[in-house]
Amino acid sequence: MPLHESKVMTNTQKRSEGGHFSNLPMDIVFQILQHLDPLDIVAMRATSRSLHVATSERIVWLSVLDRICEHYGIFKPTFPFEEMSLAQLEHAAFSSSRFVKTVQRFDPGPLGDNCAPVYQHRTIKSPRNADGKGRLFLIPGGRFLLTSGTEIRLWDLGHSSEPYHVKPRVIARTEDGSALAAVCPSDDGKGLVVAATSSADGRSTLRIYEIDIQCNSPAFSKAAELVFDDIPHFSSLMNFHLTSSNIVIHCRTYFASWNWKERTGCKWPIGKEEISDLSIYGIDDTVIVFDNDNQFNIWDVPDHCPLSHPSSNDLANKPRRPKRFHRPAKTPALATHWNTIFSGTPVWQRHLPPYLCTMATNSLHQHVKGASFMPMYTPVLQRKAEAVFSDYYERVSELVSPLYQSGDHLVFCASSSQSEATLVAAMPIPKEYSKEPIPISYMMLSDGLGGTFNHFITVHNGFCPMSGRLAYAREGVDEIVILDYLPLFSAERR
Fold first, then answer.
1. Residues 97, 99, 103, 105: what is their CA dihedral angle, to the nearest 10 degrees?
2. Phi-psi category of residue 461: left, alpha or beta, with phi > 0 → left and psi -120 to 50 → alpha
3. What is the number of H-type helices and E-type strands within the chain?
4. Which InterPro entries does its entry note (predicted)?
5. Which residues contact 368 (CB under 8 A, 6 or more apart)?
6. What angle do CA 328, 413, 326 make, to 5 degrees?
7. What is the pTM of this model?
8. Is pLDDT at 397 greater than 70 in this prediction?
9. What is the set of domains in the chain, with CATH numbers?
10. Which residues contact 477 (CB under 8 A, 6 or more apart)?
11. pLDDT, tens only, 223-237
């Protein structure tokens, strides 16, 4: 037993003398508390003096926060665990559930426009790339931000439970002109894996970087690169699915799968005409895409073959047809005026059951914008998807974030062309098939400048419900805004 734990237990036992707690040894009490929900722990605090003392020990909340990070895919280096006070540990442990409650509290109903107040507002300078867009990714936990413009930068924003305003600082950057494509956690969850692209002379290069966040001087360490002679440039951030060792890439007329650690890969044709914008979602060895015909296509990734050269020309060609087609509700065949987008559980939450969410909007009648909202289990291994359908509020027109799981809710960020605003929505995780309306709560987001967002084009993936933090690139300005929607928390005033 570590010495500091033994000392904590001894002090607690001394303070508990004379109480009416059970005869359980205090180390057993700690073990029980560390596996409870944070709300249950705080509720027990009011039952007796002994439990008040036990539930106020840092060792309990250190374990609780570590478990929450592991379960919900929060990047653990976000928090300097041993340096955090009891109040900071409790704030971090409660942030995810508090944000869902904030959404529910500010839900104005279908006719209202009630904005959540901004607790903290900061800006950072970040030059945009040649197309005038600022790409970014807020790492789950909210502390680390990747931005892409003339270079890729990794920022430390400070964690959301800091009791004072932290000045953001750049802790690592690239110097090769690469553009951010995707990011995921390393195998041990303590580092970052970054995919980046660059284009020159009519061809593109995909680079994989690894970042050790916990070292004294984090850096983008190039792990591998793959050259695509037939791709002038990659068109969208949604064209990649990245894991800690493999990446699947949409290359217009074909898919490529590359394991850079084992130096293996393959490719297979899409089987249709060239598609410039195609959303990809991957889970294990299955790839799900949504095509221009408003239907899902589901492939099993073919077996990889060794690569002798770091070029897409060396990828083994393995023709393969999709194993399943699936058409979402309210998007009938040949319905050319239905636009469908989808999002899913991010790779960061790899320990949780995966869900997909599709949204179909009718673009023919812009003044009456209907939406069909469908979260469902990912349809893999020939199993049929369990789906829940609902007509959602007309104000929602586009999903712009992954489908995060927070407690027993799914949380996502969306934009609205009707209200010219951005909102966050939360809905209970569906348990079974139903045609009943889904009780979805939403709150409008203020832009930190006295108004609401009038667009959300460049904010993709700048949202973290586990910290109540949002980052977005301002239109026409080399500036990124960081907003916090959760004030510091006291468990005694929950």
1. 70
2. left
3. 6, 32
4. F-box-like_dom_sf, F-box_dom
5. 362, 394
6. 15
7. 0.84
8. no
9. 3-99 (1.20.1280), 112-173+328-494 (no CATH), 174-326 (2.40.128)
10. none
11. 999 999 988 887 655
